[in-house]
Amino acid sequence: MMTLDRLHALLDAHGAAPERWPDGERDAALALIAASPAARALQDDAALLDALLDDDVVEPPSAALVARIVAAAPAPARRRARVIRPTRWLVPLALAAGLALWFGRPVEQPVPAIPIAALGVYEVGSDELLALSDVEPLDTDAWTDCPDDVLGCPAATPPSTEPLSGPSTDERRIWS
Amino acid sequence: MARVAAGDAEAVRVVVGAHLSRITAFAARTLGDRTEAEDVAQETFMRLWTHAARWEPGRARLTTWLHRVALNLCLDRRARRPHVSLDAAPLPAAPDTDVTQALQAADVSRHVRVEVMQLAERQRTALVLSHYQGLSSTETADVMAISVEAVESLLARARRTLRERLRAMAPALLGDA
Fold first, then answer.
1. pLDDT per residue over B83-116, tens digit each?
2. Is B31 in contact with B77 (CB distance < 8 Å)?
3. What are the C-alpha distances in Å from B77 to residues A73, B65, B126, B130, B132?
4. Which residue in B12, B46, B155 is closest to A13 by CB distance?
């Protein structure tokens, strides 16, 4: 319900122009003004002050100010210079070269298949062959020109038939 | 604002054309000094350019944002002024008949501006934002970080004060009621 008091408050706050009034109260205020000479007088009084306020006009900004502000605006991103960077092309170039080499390699001639039977059959095991020569497998290390200066080398004596100190028979079994 | 941030010259021209005059006028009416007002307007737009890339559409209206930045810059400048604030300055003496006639003849605009500048700072800010800048009560409240009710109270007090002072100066302009 719009009253003269509320209209007075509206005019005091927002002035006489209805477009400045709150949306929710505009229609009721206009209806009251249309119906009440007292309300119309209040609006006219407010309009006088509005007119005085509107007499004060501020000059537009100077051209120099506009130019300074526009000049300081974000600049468009510059188009990247077309600089040939070796690292940009080396990787794909190397890949292409690698592929070319791979696909262009000479095709290997197939190895002629040799029947397995032509190789013969080894029916005697290595241990048995060594046993025939009377040589212990663990005694086959080099004796001379020993380069091991950390652990040292055995005395440069000719190999004897005595077995060297080493793993026991059981250990040898494990090693063999 | 995305176009502005990307350096679109046309977008920059549109934003400057739509807002620079208003922000400059707002600062001029807030500070009462044209040179300082242009400095504030320039600084406001520098901040806009800096902020453009991070602008979030829908979070704030550009108009409201610009006014808030400009208001803060104006308040900073007023706080640094060495002389006495206009708010604390004594009211002008009652004019004699010659002054009234001069006012009625040619100086209405200047005199109104002086009277607006004599308002308390918050009243003046609310009046300038609402009447001259055309912001709604909600937008004015947003810029000033106060409630809509507080805005309407400030506006009512500002207009009542102005009416009384201007009527005392120039009865013919506002009637004798």
1. 544 444 444 444 455 555 555 545 777 888 889 9
2. yes
3. 24, 19, 18, 22, 21
4. B155
> How far, in Å, CA of B75 to CA of B79, rounded?
6
Which residues from chain A sit within 8 angstroms of residue B16, using beta carbons?
A: 66, 69-70, 73
With a CB-CB cutoff of 8 Å, which residues 115-134 of chain B face chain A? 116, 130-132
ipTM of the shown complex: 0.78
Polymer length of chain B: 177
Select the residue of B34, B109, B175 nearest A55 (Cβ to Cβ).
B109
For residues A123 and A129, give the distance between their C-alpha atoms in angstroms, rounded to a whole number.
11
pTM beyond cutoff 0.90: no
Task: Give pLDDT tens digits for A60-99.
Answer: 999 999 999 999 999 887 655 455 555 566 767 777 888 7
The label of the residue with tokens 């607006």 reads B116
Contacts 24+ apart (CB under 8 A), A170-173: A172/A136, A172/A138
B156 interaction partners in chain A (CB closer than 8 Å) = 9, 12-13
CB contacts, 8 Å: A76 with chain B: 6-9
Q: Which of residues 73-92 of B touch A (CB under 8 A)?
A: none
